[in-house]
Amino acid sequence: MRLYAFNKLEEKLTQLGYPQMKESGFKVIKVDLTQEEISGHISYRQDGVYRTINNQAQRGYMYMYSYDVAKHNQYPKFHIMKCKTIVDQMSRGAFNTKYIWSNSNVVDVQERTTRDVYHDVRLSLCGNCAKEAVGTIERTTEEFYQMLLANAALTIDVSLDKRPYNSGEISKIFREMMNYTCNACSLKITDRMDRVYMHMHHKDHNPLNNYPENLESLCYLCHIHTDALHKAKLNKPRIKQSLDYFVNKYKEELVKIGNPYIKAYLTQL
Ligand SMILES: [Zn+2]
Ligand SMILES: [Zn+2]
Ligand SMILES: [Zn+2]
Question: What residue stretches are annotated with the HNH nuclease domain (predicted)?
Fold first, then answer.
């Protein structure tokens, strides 16, 4: 029932001209959700709350800024969709102006009565969102953020002036064909959620050349080390942060299979 409703919604959004999520750079943003909704920037989907600016859809989540933290002895939860909790709040008139839209790993939360601010807090996913969402879900704002970073990093071969309109689709099909296995170190990603750490690399650096002989399936760590051009991406803090996250998560396996770069990489973590 819910899945059916969602497919209808997707169809509707497409008809209304809401853009699909496009590959793009990634910036951390925190804004008032109601203001954004009034401006017509917000669309609620199954896998996130999308904020569309200049035809670029940014995926994020929402959370209540002012909250009785001490009373509940916990921080507010974050929501990725119009779950039961949100729908209830909307019908009681307890939703508007209360929420922040964000795509960050950490947020600020205000103690409702004293107005003290807790800084850089990581939130957990709302139970109803977890129940109602379809597919893989991120359980914390940190996981959500790391997923966004990793998604943005999937396109490190693609410069802005050379972007095939369907690069995301090609990459997905190719990586699927290659069984999410790295050509260089043979790492295999089995966790669906971590598929974003297996990349499609263009040997000739031309993202428009998608002939099979030009493509390689490489894990994030091997991909960054293919040449100086790729290594230079490590100067981008968000790329570095996201690669660190991947390496930390997979370090034992990478060491075990003898990944050629892991030892040197670990010494500078
Ligand atoms: Zn929720
Ligand atoms: Zn590899
Ligand atoms: Zn590449």
Answer: 172-224
- Ligand 2 midpoint to CA 268 (Å): 18
ipTM of the complex: 0.92
Tokens 């920037």 appear where? 41
Which ligand minimizes its atom distance to the CA of 209?
3
Query: Quick one: angle between helices 141-153 and 237-256, nearest 10?
Result: 90
- By the 10 Å C-beta count (0-12 exposed, 13-18 middle, 19+ buried), 268 is classed as exposed
**Ligand that lies nearest to the alpha carbon of residue 227, given by its number in the listed order:** 3
Other beta carbons within 10 angstroms of residue 251's beta carbon come to: 16
* First CA to last CA distance, the chain: 47
The model's confidence at residue 159, banded by pLDDT at 50, 70 and 90, is low
Distance in angstroms (rounded) separating the CA atoms of residues 58 and 85: 23
- DSSP letter (8 states) at residue 103: -
Largest CA distance in the chain: 63
What amino acid is encoded at 268 in this protein? Q
Average pLDDT score over residue span 83-105:
97
Secondary structure of the chain: what % helix, strand, coil (to 5)? 40, 20, 40
Average pLDDT over residues 5-29: 51
Give the distance (Å) from ligand 1 centre to CA of residue 50. Answer: 15
Q: Which amino acid is at 92?
A: R
Q: Phi then psi for 169, rounded to 5 degrees?
A: -65, -45
The token pair that represents 72 in the structure block: 């509940």
Q: Indicate which ligand has the atom closest to the C-alpha of 202.
A: 3
Q: How far is the CA of 140 from the centre of ligand 1 (A)?
A: 12
Residue 169: predicted pLDDT: 82
